[in-house]
Design brief:
By secondary structure, this protein is an alpha/beta fold. It contains 16 helices and 14 strands.
């Protein structure tokens, strides 16, 4: 194992907490991302008197670990890719024997490698979560990944999924029985993510009153497809140069596609109307400077950034993929377009730009839907209930 960070409290406190069941969450990497954000929220918000937690990263962790507010969470990096796979399996089995978890909860493809070591270590409750797919498996039918999901299916006691779309996929494509799948939506902190107040948020972050800001937040990776958004914004300016004169595009995030996105901005000649903010730690405040949120992804599980935008009171223009249609109600809280359809996206950018009442009406509806359907409490309660059920701790 390559690295371990321990956030254990003093011995006496830990001794009392050790009586609680331990959940080991296995993920690919603890860094910026929707899955990771959801996991951190779950650990931070779950009552301390219910479960202990540890995070096993198949590869590594970043400074994102500092978002964990609890002081009793071990974070272990396995360094996969730097050692043979058999060695990773052996290290995982030894780790699980030492930690003696009540539950191992793996997530996405990389997490499947934790299942056999968990069995070897005697972990009886093995949960696997599906949170979405990547650019090389947009529809979930990549032959290699299909084989892996089907191969590991017998080793999973129960599945968790973040959308009805993924629930259907597991049943139809992986042949997982319905009673072995629990669907739980991600939750959003509607206190942290809230609408802007009296211009103070906008002024602090430099939003100009004479600009209408279209904003996107996400890793700059192929699956997020920010280049389609840049093309759509350029086309919107071409379609209605006068109406889009005061429009501005803000892209938040960093990643391997940054250079390609910047090249497309330069090629389109819209550099004066686009801001690339890079990775930010103040997303809640940044969102309050937007007027419309745009998500051009090629695939999604359940988008945390859509939920955060809805809680901020923003209308959402997103692609019709994955769980997005479960979040965005067309003509009520936003609009949906097909992935890669930059022309249709451009048309909606022009519409939102020209109709302030539409922006306001759909933004208010989005906020209401976030409060009613996607609260943090609902997510935490659902995962706690699932863990209780699997361990026979009902009523604890």
């Amino acid at each position: 194992m390559s690295d371990v960070i321990s956030k254990l409290p003093v011995e006496g406190v830990y001794a009392r907490q050790a009586e609680l069941p331990l959940i080991v969450h296995v993920i690919h990497e603890l860094g910026v991302g929707g899955l990771e954000n959801g996991l951190v929220n779950l650990i931070n918000e779950m009552p301390r008197d219910r479960y202990r937690h540890a995070i096993v990263c198949m590869t590594r962790y970043t400074e994102f670990r500092d978002r964990i507010q609890r002081d009793d969470v071990d974070i272990i990096a396995m360094g996969r890719g730097t050692v043979p796979l058999w060695r990773t399996y052996l290290d995982l089995a030894r780790l699980f024997r030492r930690l003696a978890p009540a539950i191992v909860h793996s997530r996405n493809l990389s997490g499947l490698d934790a299942l056999i070591p968990a069995i070897v270590a005697g972990v009886k409750v093995r949960v696997h979560g599906e949170h979405g797919r990547d650019v090389d498996d947009l529809d979930g039918h990549n032959p290699r990944y299909l084989r892996l999901r089907r191969l590991f299916r017998p080793f999973v006691k129960h599945y968790s999924v973040v959308s009805q779309d993924l629930r259907k996929y597991l049943g139809d494509t992986i042949a997982v029985p319905p009673d072995k799948v629990t669907q739980i939506y991600n939750g959003v902190d509607t206190t942290l993510f809230r609408p802007a107040d009296s211009g103070a948020d906008a002024a602090r972050l430099g939003r100009l009153d004479d600009k209408i800001v279209f904003g996107a937040v996400g890793r700059l990776q192929p699956v997020k497809d920010q280049i389609t958004l840049v093309k759509a914004f350029a086309e919107a300016r071409r379609l209605n140069p006068e109406g889009m004169r005061s429009a501005h595009l803000v892209i938040v995030g960093d990643g391997p596609c940054r250079a390609a996105i910047e090249a497309e901005i330069a090629r389109s000649g819209i550099g004066d109307y686009v801001s690339m903010l890079g990775e930010r730690n103040d997303i809640a405040e940044v969102l309050r400077t937007f007027h419309v949120f745009v998500l051009p992804s090629l695939v999604e599980g359940i988008s945390n950034t859509i939920l955060e935008a809805m809680a901020t009171g923003l209308p959402v223009l997103a692609t019709r993929v994955g769980g997005n249609p479960e979040l965005v109600i067309e003509n009520e809280t936003g609009q949906l377009v097909n992935p890669g359809d930059w022309q249709r996206m451009a048309s909606w950018l022009v519409t939102f730009m020209s109709d302030a009442r539409l922006r306001e009406r759909q933004g208010l509806a989005a906020r209401q839907r976030a409060e009613e359907m996607f609260s943090m409490n609902a997510m935490v309660h659902a995962y706690t209930a699932l863990y209780d059920q699997l361990l026979g701790r009902m009523g604890k």
